[in-house]
Amino acid sequence: MAGPKQTARIYVPPRSAMQSGKGRQSGWVLEFEPGERQRLDPLMGWSGSGDTRGQVRLHFPTREEAVAYAEANALAYEVEEPKPVRIKAKVYADNFRFGRSENWTH
Which UniProt keywords apply (predicted)? Predict the structure, then answer.
């Protein structure tokens, strides 16, 4: 049964606040955009929809594998490239540098 054409989103999920390193990154994720609005169930009061594709999250180790899966299954897709992460190195000697603008904290 072919439903309405939905766009798949391929992206790298962000790290949680508890992660600082690059280890255990989960790779790329392919998930579908919502196909219909959620509605309130009159009996239970829960919100939901008849769109079951919204529950699907496929994980891939590389971007190329996720794109190949989408193309093999004739899915319209958009790729979101990850933003580069800049890490400024902290140097202990900066605590004692001349002309330092920050207050001494201890």
Answer: Electron transport, Membrane, Respiratory chain, Transit peptide, Transport
Which residue matches tokens 């529950």?
A: 55
Residues in the chain: 106
The sign of the dihedral angle between the CA atoms of 42, 44, 49, 51 is: negative
What's the total number of domains in the chain? 1
Mind listing the pLDDT tens digit for each residue in 61-87? Answer: 999 999 999 999 999 999 999 888 777
Q: Which domain holds residue 94?
A: 1-13+27-34+54-100
pTM of the shown model? 0.64
